[in-house]
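Readers of this paper often ask what the protein records in our data store actually look like. Such a record has a labelled line for the sequence and another for the backbone structure tokens. Nothing more is needed to write down the fold, since each code stands for a local backbone conformation. The record that follows is passed on verbatim for readers who wish to inspect the format.
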Amino acid sequence: MREFEQYIDGRFEKGQATFESIDPATQKPWALMPRAGAQDVDRAVRAAWRAFADPQWTGLTATQRGKLLFRLADLLEQAVPDLAELETRDTGKIIRETRAQIAYIAEYYRYYGGLADKMDGRYVAIDKADTEAYQQREPIGVVAAIVPWNSQLFLAAVKLAPALAAGCTVVLKASEDGPAPLLAFARFVHEAGFPPGVVSILTGFGEDCGKALTSHPLVSRIAFTGGPETARHIVRNSADNLAYLTLELGGKSPVVVFPDADLDSTVNAIISGIFAATGQSCVAGSRLLAHRDILPALLDRLSERAKTIRIGPPDVMQTEFGPLATDRQRRHIVDLIARSLAAGATLVTGGQVPPGFETGFYFEPTILLCDDPQTPCLREEFFGPVLSVLPFEDEADAIANANDTPFGLASGLFTRDLARAKRVTARLRAGIVWVNTYRMISPLMPFGGFGLSGLGREGGSEAILDYMRTKSVWVRTSDEPIADPFVMR
């Protein structure tokens, strides 16, 4: 089996302990991964702390930091075929998407590389005589970045790129499920020329790696993507070091379709939102809210399209739909479907392992029709290829059902009525609203949600500010003695 290394303080090393990574398409181990423990984490964080004070890093101008990020983007772009193959092998994500997504991720490093020397301070026309004042921005310190297996190179980029542009140092923990692409990505960080300790990349399990990282006293900032339950542990872990937190969590995103929507375009967008990436996406449009007048026609088209999706090996370019990443996830999906059917949901299509794909973690594209908004499939996150459908009567009913969730990450809205689109968009409780489209990203736009979908935003120009502190500087310009030292000026 292939053996991967962790990257700590500018060096590649085998882990003192290892674990097997499973190929989701075959259910067989294919690689050994280093299992980082508390000692590895401590070495990585202390290396990041030293690098944060080292002139090799702190002595670089912001422009020079930006050029390093541009260099990293170029290397990433050149490595797309190899990294895509690794991600597909280790996670089951189809090769046609891993290639396209990794190529686009380079734009995130270029975007923040361009922002690095544009984070200006501010001169303040202060209301004190004989005094000048200004604000300057400084990097926040050591960043703990934690990403899940799905879209991991993208989710790493939205943390690494702004953090490095700001001048921080980063310890990145890859998921124990499918960490191969990020461990391989470490070689391009090294080749780009970042000084030792500025970026370390390791992987391990929550109790002996994640906990040590998020509770480390030298960590000033935690950027996490994952589930709400793990996020609660991270919040508790960070209580002692009072690290600044951003949490990008799960979703139960509604897709609202009004009677005037273009059904052909809408069907394609819905399919993309729930069945692309085998539904394993935090922004998956897993709740379809359709007006009763168009529900039968829309459901027929969706059902027929779902049945024609090309299921196959993820490393074949013609495949549209590969396996789930883990058997654990498949068991969760089967259980949630069973509970939903018992609660009154109707199975429209799918719901089982596709014939001929008994080997591997495959599961059919599935559609459930519900009458009760409290049905489990409408309340709980599948993180898989299951679309739950609920009819609505009017605009007010649609908005009420869309917002009837503790999550609030993404949403979709389909209508030709511009006035309605503006009204409904304003009332949807979600950090992202896609109108007449779905599942689009850009480094220029913020990404994040409300409620159990997390805290803070990633992406966009403001994200870099979350990796910086503001320092207020007061300069007295008078040579005269202070009049009364016992009175605050």
In short: The domain at 2-248+459-473 is CATH 3.40.605.10 (Aldehyde Dehydrogenase; Chain A, domain 1).
